[in-house]
Amino acid sequence: MDRSELRPLGVAEIVDVALKVYLRHALALFGLVAIVVVPVQLVQLLFTLSITPATEAAGSEAAFTGTVSDGGAATLAGLIFGGLLVGLLTFVATTLATGACFKAVADAYLGDQPDTSESLRFARGRLGSLILVSLLGAVLTFLGFLLFVLPGVYLWIAFSVAAPVLLFEGVKGSGALGRSRRLVQGRWWPVFGTLLLGFILAAVVGGIITSILTGVLALGSGSGGFVEALVGAVAGSVAAIVTTPFQAALIAILFFDLKVRKEGFDVTLLAEGMGMPPPPGAPENRPGIGSPASAPEPPTGG
């Protein structure tokens, strides 16, 4: 991207830029997410099909006798454990796919063609840190929601760019959350408006896709556990493939905009943060600008 384009953007402009990046590289982004999401959806489908008879049997036993036998209790415990395992696998896969999309969007921002294998390698090498940051942010946000909701909303927005901070600045753990909060500080309402608008668009598109696929795939098919599970897996996969890259693009562009506003961010600094050579024609990097480690120290008392 031309450095002249790196200027502060309004809420609608951020969404517009994210849409343009997303649409321009849609096929590459869709393929990137599909590689990660489809195998997990297949595992989830197989698990759903395998537990249906056991779930029905345990439910019938409880309804008929009012109690569950030791064998039924063991079956239910296995179902709960399996469900948690599938949920964990889904969380890890979603985190990996989103991280890879961030890398692909940043490549597009630098004017390069996103590379699927390179994007996955980039995210996979930082997957543990991404999971930790996601979990820390989720726990703190959940605790905030328990405190009369509003603190949770504040933290959700304040931590919204923690993943790009980790990926492109190398700040990990609680440091990434703190860095995200400082970037959002003073821009909370515009960030909130941007995320709200973007996620409403994603939710609407995802809902339309799910409804259409559910209707088409179920048309003419009799009701049954296999058909319902298959329809759910296909609809869930397609919705994730279509919406995940856009959400990642939105957050990435939002992160770049916050850095442009506060730190004179440019494409050279973005390339540095990704461990890449600067794009052709990019200006020489100005020492210290955009680096969180080089920010001036606050004055000390005394």
Task: Give a short summary of the structure.
The chain is an all-alpha fold. It has eleven helices and no strands.
List the defining traits of the structure above.
single chain; globular; mainly alpha; 76% helix; 302 residues; disordered C terminus
Q: What does this 3D model show about the protein?
A:
With 302 residues, the chain is mainly alpha-helical. The protein has a domain at 3-64 and 71-124 and 187-263. Helices cover 76% and strands 0% of the residues. Helix 5 crosses helix 8 (173-184) and helix 7 (162-169) crosses helix 8. The longest helix is centred in the N-terminal third of the chain and has 40 residues, at 26-65. The protein is globular.
List the helices and strands and how they pair.
Blueprint (H helix, E strand, L loop, with lengths): L10 H14 L1 H40 L4 H40 L6 H9 L2 H20 L3 H9 L3 H8 L3 H12 L3 H31 L6 H39 L3 H7 L29
Spell out the helices and strands N to C.
HHHHHHHHHHH
As a percent range, the share of helical residues equals over 70%
| Rg for CA atoms | 22 Å
Number of helices: 11
Residue-averaged pLDDT: 79
Main sheet specs? none
Low-confidence segments: 56-64, 283-302
Shape: globular
SS strand fraction: under 5%
Identify the quaternary structure here. single chain
Ends distance = 46 Å
Structure classification: mainly alpha
